[in-house]
Design goal:
The structure holds two protein chains of two kinds. By secondary structure, chain A is α+β, with helices and mostly antiparallel strands. Helices cover about 35% and strands about 20% of the residues of chain A. Chain A has a seven-stranded antiparallel beta sheet, with helices on one face.
């Protein structure tokens, strides 16, 4: 019987850019050539051409994932993403996204959202979040304590965090919330982002493997977290019936 | 207090149950002065509506007098939240947990996921009308707890 040919080794990966930045690069890159079409005066055409050239470079950067200036400087931001995939021990990891429309401005929501100590009020699996210092906070999820380091908080549109380590419990290693105002100037915000997921731990060939459980429960848990956040922001409380009177049975 | 309790299909009884208490800061306790039996209560009685549980208190059409309101103070960090809590609810009778406000339809049902699974969207919370609509204890009782999704405690106090 003919032995199947060994898998061809993939060529050396030229990507040195984290995928989030690649997307951003492509978005920025598209703006340059588009801008050229709207120029009218000579001076602004020159500016537009410059922007188009820069945009083309960014498109190349975004499409290939390779950035020459980064390579020259020895920077490799792709490692961030790959590390996460490795930690999740799956081919791609699991990315769960959901969104909810909230009748409030992004600024209002961010005032609440940026205070991580308030998150347990609507995230059901969180017991406590305690701010250690400006950059670090201690998160207690269900019965497991872990330390998370908050990173990448830029403005009121975005808040993200990254866990220092991944073990056997209930948080994605990386998470991000985006607050985006809806069109038309309405006081509404759309919130997207991954949230809690369970991690299944198995032992294979003597090694412990962690895998995110992608069954519906985590997705619903995220959905319910977002729903509670909306309830809290729009009415000031999360509705409950726990503790109300009942009959004898 | 005494309340009408659903114990199973075609089995409802007036029983003694604990008095309701304030569970959320903007709850109000209503001393029921008038209550009604609706035709749709028959759907609960004969088991047509799912997700009833033995011990549920019936009654989704009632009125009464506010005898207690919850704390309405919020910590400083929640001032933005508190300022966004303007009630847009109609001054209708306290027959449902939400009235007709879209905001309250979205926010008053703690079991919204059940309704979404069944209908594809969620109804508002309702008093005494199965756990599909939140499982709120109803008003065929001496006292009932009105929730913020229904109206603010301040609004309820003016009824």
């Amino acid at each position: 019987m003919k032995k199947p040919a060994p898998k061809k080794e993939q060529p050396h990966d030229l990507r040195n850019k984290y995928r989030g930045r690649r997307t951003m690069g492509v978005c920025l890159g598209r703006r340059g050539p588009n801008r050229l079409r709207h120029q009218t005066t000579e001076g602004s055409i020159a500016v537009g051409r410059g922007a188009a050239a820069a945009g083309t470079a960014l498109i190349y950067r975004g499409a290939t994932g390779h950035c020459h200036p980064y390579a020259a400087a020895g920077i490799n931001t792709a490692a961030d993403e790959d590390d996460t995939k490795r930690a999740l021990a799956g081919p791609r990891g699991v990315n769960v996204e959901d969104s909810v429309t909230i009748n409030a401005s992004p600024e209002e929501l961010y005032v609440f959202w940026r205070n991580f100590e308030l998150l347990p009020r609507f995230m059901a699996h969180l017991v406590e979040v305690r701010q250690i210092d400006v950059r670090r906070s201690h998160w207690v999820a269900e019965s497991t304590g872990r330390t998370n380091r908050r990173v990448g908080r830029r403005d009121h549109q975005r808040s993200s965090w990254r866990s220092d380590w991944l073990a056997d419990a209930a948080w994605l290693r990386r998470g991000q919330r985006r607050l985006r105002p809806l069109q038309g100037g309405a006081r509404q915000s759309r919130l997207r982002g991954p949230g809690p997921a369970s991690v299944r731990s198995t032992r294979r060939k003597g090694r412990r493997h962690h895998r995110l459980d992608a069954r519906p429960r985590p997705a619903r848990a995220i959905h319910e977290d977002l729903r509670r956040f909306k309830q809290l922001m729009e009415t000031g409380e999360v509705p409950t019936t726990k503790g109300q009177p009942r009959g004898r049975k | 207090m005494k309340a009408l309790v659903w114990n199973g299909t075609n089995d409802v009884r007036v029983e003694r149950v604990p008095d309701p208490t304030i569970l959320n800061g903007r709850d109000a306790i209503i001393k029921v002065t008038t209550t009604a039996i609706c035709g749709s209560d028959l759907h609960l009685l004969n088991g047509y509506i799912p997700t009833m549980q033995a011990g549920d208190i019936l009654g989704h059409e009632f009125m009464g007098e506010v005898v207690e309101v919850g704390e309405r103070k919020y910590p400083a960090e929640e001032s933005a939240t508190a300022s966004s809590c303007r009630s847009r609810l109609p001054a209708a009778g306290a027959s449902s947990a939400s009235g007709s406000s879209g905001r309250c339809c979205d926010n008053s049902n703690p079991n919204a996921w059940m309704a979404e699974k069944l209908y594809g969207y969620s109804t508002s919370g309702l008093f005494g009308y199965s756990h599909l609509t939140g499982g709120y204890a109803g008003g065929q009782a001496r006292y009932a707890r009105a929730v913020r999704g229904c109206r603010s405690a301040q609004d309820a106090a003016t009824v």
